[in-house]
Amino acid sequence: MRIKRYDLDFGRRQLMKNAALGLGAGVLAPLWPTLARSGEVTKAYPDELLSIELQSKGKIKPGDTLNASNVDSVKHLLDPIKYKQIKEMGRIAKIRAPTAKIEEMFPYAYLQATLKNSGRGAFDATGNVIDKQTGGPWLGGNPFPDPKTGDEAVANITLSWGRHDVSQYAVRSFSLNPDGSDAYTYDLYWTELNTTARTEGDPVFEGKKDMLRFQSVFFTAPQEQAGASFLVPWYYDQRKFPDIYGYLPQFRRIRQFPANQRFEPLVPGMSFFLSDAWGAGDPMLTWGNTKIVGRGPMLVALGGNWRGEENANWENQHRHGGPKGRSFMEWTMELAPECLVIESEPTGYPRSPVGKKRMWVDVRNSALVAYVTYDRRGELWKQVDPCFGPQVQGKVANKDRHGYPNWSWTQVVFHDIQSGRIDLFNHVKQISGGYQSRYEAPNGDEKGVYDKFCTQAAIARLGAV
Fold it and tell me: What Pfam family is a match, any one (predicted)?
């Protein structure tokens, strides 16, 4: 028999005390030095923050299904919209034991960069992240592995969304009407090319040190939207608004959109906005009053959601819940011992329909694990609910060039609870048109990716196909 050293609330009290004192993550030991030294998280936290049985007071254990009958026991571990989905809409989730190994929480190269560059991240006088040894752009990995402020946590997400120098996602998206019926099924191809804050190869792509990334999205289906494409070049200076260029096939020309287009759907029927991407879809210094408002354990989707063994195209075909039983994808969740709760306001967007956003960030890897927005009246509005993890299921793994399973997002739910609309993004292997998910440039040709997907001429060519 194992005797508990601490009462159930000890861990949460200690986390809030650490937050008040501006200390880093961890309870029994500092988290990041423990992870860097041992590769495991368990020595940094008491059992009370690692056990779903203890957090639910015996109502839930690994292997159980979270549903309306037991969700009240873990309401404190969920964002408010996910709780509503489970309690009122029939959403369920499988519960598994927590991830303990650090290498299962990051892409391999990104983790190595985070370890190598630890201690070198800093903010300059403008609020931008720099390498404090050189004063130049950030080198790669998380600049603040042990975030102590909301700005540090947001910077970890913003500088490299997908945590690869090049990410290209084949996405099958299902947009649902409020009554649960299908509105649209979209195939889209999302490209991210970091020019700075890189993990491998040249520290600056093509000498573009004044840029952070080029991001584009191109729709291949359905026919009426095929060819719609958008390009968003991001400046390294996070005070600057990115340009938004769109090519609409029906007009056969490129149009530049205003900054507020970030808060509107790209195509009909979607509730997803560019601003929603990764919970950090806008430059971090165009938002302000960013602060940590909470700290504690949370149920997160960190692994066990990739479908490579059961489906050659990685598709999650298990749908349930909602008015027609198809509003949500099957999810696996686990207990994360410590997450930051961060609030921020769109200070750079006086016409933004968003009043504030709230982000939940797992301190172990600084990944977004939940996100909600509030409208200008302060009413709860939208949810971004992502799941991440290594691309391995059973005996099947999609490995990187280092021999490790690729690590990325697998599915995302976007839910506008005011309109009732839901988008289900499924990260698949390939979409119509033959476009495949990749986490590095084919044959190492990053210039080829840039030329094909990341210029105004490129989106015009893609749209004209």
Answer: DUF1329
Q: Is residue 400 part of a domain?
A: yes
d(CA 398, CA 288): 39
Pair type for strands 407-416 and 380-390? antiparallel
Distance CA 461, CA 362 (A): 40
The encoded tokens of residue 395 equal: 């005996």
Q: How many CA atoms lie within 13 A of 72 on its CB side?
A: 2
User: What CATH number corresponds to the domain at position 238?
Assistant: 2.50.20.10
Which one, of 303, 287, 258, lies nearest residue 411 by Cα? 303
Domain, as residue range, for 286: 152-464
The structure's pTM equals 0.93
More confident: 162 or 29: 162
Number of domains comprising the chain: 1
**Which residue shows structure tokens 């049985």?**
53
Instruction: Answer yes or no: is 15 within a domain.
Output: no
For residue 144, what pLDDT band results from cuts at 50, 70 and 90?
very high
What would the pLDDT profile of 61-120 be if each residue is shown by its tens digit? Answer: 999 999 999 999 999 999 999 999 999 999 999 999 999 899 999 999 999 999 999 999
Strands (E), 36-120: 65-66, 93-95
Distance CA 20, CA 37 (A): 26
Burial of residue 436 (number of CB atoms within 10 Å: 0-12, 13-18, 19+): middle
Asked if pLDDT for residue 318 goes beyond 60, the answer is yes
Q: What is the pLDDT of residues 260-273, one digit of tens each?
A: 889 999 899 899 99
